[in-house]
Design goal:
By secondary structure, this protein is an alpha/beta fold. The protein has 10 helices and 12 strands. The chain folds into 2 domains: 188 residues, Rossmann fold, CATH 3.40.50.1000; 85 residues, Hypothetical Protein Ta0175, Chain: A, domain 2. It is 34% helix and 21% strand. The mean pLDDT is 93.
């Protein structure tokens, strides 16, 4: 059994990183960083960003160094040791079989006639992640059905993840191996570290976090999430019988608005009240 008691998994953009429209609580990120210094806490970043963009965010926003990083919407897992990023090769071996030996360039060729898809920059692609921009006025439900049919015709087992980049006002569609997702990557890491569900907490804000937010894992939806995602999270968690595993952060005081890092810390206190004293002791200083 691992020697820490909390595997704290968090999305970055608009979850820990305050790059949404809503205000950040004063000192919330600093309190979060101090909390993560506790030896009983192991920090995991779970993000759509690739390695270089995660490292850039850590420096730009003065984020604590993680112990593990799940990047590219769950397609890569790294252990971070003294700032060295060590990829876990067993994860890529596990997800590779879903695409039947095909690469993302071949998948892209299968989808070339779908006009609404605009391929994202090369830096946002990897071996098992094919990402597109989609206009917000497009019928993304019908589009995803069309993409699914094209890939199924080629015997490709894929997972389609829809989300919205609110600042850029554009839809995002990630095509991944079916077994590659934030949820499956977190579960792989959980088993790799021999941890129970009670030792794990996830924090997120957007559509590509919904699979985790509505799962059996303890999760917190930060208060700055959109009304649509908030509604979807409640409906999905209820339909799957996981209402007790989802905490919706909210404004508690002028110094704790539930947005970003303050929402993550609210989730920690909700599910693991024994850690609250560590958070509050830092707040009082």
């Amino acid at each position: 059994m691992s020697d820490f008691r909390l595997l704290l998994c968090t999305d970055l953009d608009r979850t820990l990183i305050p790059n949404g429209h809503q205000p950040e609580s004063v000192n919330a990120r600093l309190r979060f960083s101090h909390f993560c210094q506790n030896p009983e806490v192991s920090l995991v970043y779970v993000t759509g960003r690739h390695q270089q963009l995660v490292q850039q965010a850590i420096e730009e926003y003065q984020l604590p160094q993680p112990d593990f990083v799940i990047t590219d919407v769950g397609t890569k897992i790294y252990q971070v040791v003294d700032k060295d990023w060590i990829e876990l090769p067993d994860w890529e071996k596990r997800i590779s079989t879903d695409w039947r030996g095909k690469n993302r360039q071949q998948l892209e060729a299968y989808l070339k006639d779908i006009d609404a898809l605009e391929r994202q920059e090369e830096t946002k692609q990897n071996t098992y992640k094919l990402s597109y921009y989609v206009p917000l006025d497009a019928d993304h439900h019908a589009l995803m059905q069309q993409v699914s049919r094209c890939l199924e015709a080629q015997n490709i087992a894929a997972s389609l993840v829809w989300s919205v980049d609110e600042p850029a006002q554009v839809g995002l569609l990630d095509i991944l191996p079916r077994s590659a997702s934030k949820l499956h990557a977190i579960e792989f890491l959980q088993h790799h570290l021999d941890l129970s569900d009670k030792q794990l907490l996830f924090a997120g804000d957007s559509g590509n976090d919904l699979h985790v937010l509505s799962s059996h894992l303890q999760s917190v939806l930060v208060a700055n999430a959109s009304a649509e995602v908030r509604t979807q999270a409640k409906i999905l968690s209820s339909s799957q019988g996981h209402v007790e595993q989802l905490y919706l952060a909210g404004e508690k005081s002028k110094d704790d608005n539930g947005n970003y890092a303050s929402g993550i810390l609210q989730g920690v206190c909700h599910f693991m009240p024994e850690f609250c004293r560590l958070i509050e002791s830092r707040k009082a200083k």
